[in-house]
Amino acid sequence: MRWDLLGVAVDFRLRCAFVAPQAPPSAVAGVALAGVIGGPGPRCVGEALVDAYVEHLRTFGPHIRGRRWLLEREAEARLDRMCFALAWFDRVFRDGAIAPGSPLADMVDDGDLDALLGCVPEYVVMDLQVQVMLAERALGQLRSAAEVAVCQAAPTFAGSADVGGADADLVIGRRLMEIKSVSRPEVLTDQAIWQLAGYVLLDYDDEYRFDEMAFYMSRVGWLASWKVDEFFGLLGARLPLHQLRDEFARQCSVAATASATGVDGQVVRRDRRTEASLLVVDRQEGADSK
Question: pTM for the full model?
């Protein structure tokens, strides 16, 4: 089972319940990159997928408040398959390559969308539908209270470029929510916690005015929320948010400079996102241990 792809597909599917019809930006970028890497086949089928996905959302309106989250049987199954297929392109964007064994590697010049959707494993449809039903119970009131206009999928931040282009899962009003569909939902990893903290820190100019941060564990239908100050306080922060953001921006700048020049002026190659994250973790763990 491809947990990584399934997790992305779950994210894409649950977004549909909150935001207006739109294709995931990471998948759209992956389509363009797949065309460069794999030729016209992956690009053509990717473009057809993006168009069909948006049209499907417009036709069936899973984002419309007051409607059930699950669509009728055939429409839901097709939407679930498209979400998983979009996850293949998301991985191209994230990895910079078409993975060996990916059906995208076998696409010919006029890639067939139905053939691509036929490559989606059957367990995906069943799994996504179970998680959609769980989400309707766990997040239904939150969705009903938040108009489409105040919901945004894949938000980026003023500092996103400083760490390689970070994008979060979902903004609902002034709440930042990360969706986790991990195989062990009882475990909330340090990496996930720092990831959520990092997104709030990257909002250098306070564009989103976050006042709440949340994890949604989609396999058990559990939503956990904290006020922003409470969340950072639990991580050992002793400074106000604006000062934490200033320091984070400075550390990102230092990391970017080091990545570009190296200690002795030699060019070095590093993952800036990973490096910046480690810098924050090290600083916060140091504060925690005092």
Answer: 0.86
